[in-house]
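Hi all, posting the design record for the shared folder.

TITLE: backbone redesign
STEP: 1 of 1
STRUCTURE INPUT:
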C-alpha cells in the first residue's frame, strides 16, 4: 500500500536514462530460480540492437516488470513457459510478458487492474497475494505516460503488455 500510495502521489519519481536490456536482465535473472522450482522455462527475447535507453524511474520500471513476470510464473503450471520480450517503436517501448498459464476469464479481465481485485482461479484457492500487484503496474505505467493491457484465454495463457514512452514529457 505504501508503494502504491507513493507511486500514485508521484512522490520521488527519479527519472534517468535507463538501459532497458539491463532492467529486463535483472528481472529475469532475479526470478529464474522461482521459475526453475516450478519447472517453468523462463526466456528473455531481446532483439539484437544497440543498447536501448528509456527515460524512466529505473526502480519503478523494474518493479512493474517484476510484478508481471512473477504473476506469469505464479499462474503457470509445471512444465509451462514464460517469455519476456520487448518491441521498440518510434517513440515507445512495449514490454511483453507471455505465459502458457491458466488464463483469465473474460469477466475478470475488465477488473484485473483494480485495487484488491483477485480473479477467481481454478486450483489456486490458497494463493496468497494482496490484489495490488497489477494495480501497481498500471499506476507505474500511467505515471510514465504509458499504459498496460492484456490478452488472455482460459486454459491457454495470457499476454501482458506494458507500453512506456522512450522520453518523458514535462508534465510527468
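Okay, here is what came back for every position:
SEQUENCE:
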Amino acid at each position: 500500500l505504501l508503494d502504491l500510495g507513493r507511486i500514485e502521489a508521484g512522490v520521488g519519481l527519479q527519472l534517468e536514462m535507463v538501459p532497458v536490456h539491463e532492467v529486463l536482465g535483472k528481472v529475469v535473472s532475479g526470478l529464474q530460480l522461482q521459475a526453475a522450482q516450478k519447472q517453468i522455462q523462463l526466456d528473455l527475447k531481446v532483439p539484437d540492437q544497440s543498447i536501448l535507453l528509456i527515460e524512466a524511474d529505473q526502480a519503478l520500471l523494474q518493479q512493474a516488470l517484476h510484478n508481471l513476470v512473477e504473476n506469469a510464473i505464479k499462474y503457470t503450471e509445471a512444465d509451462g513457459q514464460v517469455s519476456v520480450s520487448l518491441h521498440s517503436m518510434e517513440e515507445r517501448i512495449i514490454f511483453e510478458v507471455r505465459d502458457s498459464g491458466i488464463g483469465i476469464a473474460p469477466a475478470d479481465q475488465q477488473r484485473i487492474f483494480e485495487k484488491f481485485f483477485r480473479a477467481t482461479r481454478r486450483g489456486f484457492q490458497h494463493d496468497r497475494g494482496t490484489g495490488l500487484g497489477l494495480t501497481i503496474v498500471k499506476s507505474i505505467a500511467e505515471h510514465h505516460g504509458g499504459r498496460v493491457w492484456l490478452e488472455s484465454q482460459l486454459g491457454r495463457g495470457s499476454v501482458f503488455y506494458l507500453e512506456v514512452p522512450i522520453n518523458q514529457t514535462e508534465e510527468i
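COMMENT: The chain is about 35% helix and 25% strand.
Let me know if anyone wants the other runs.
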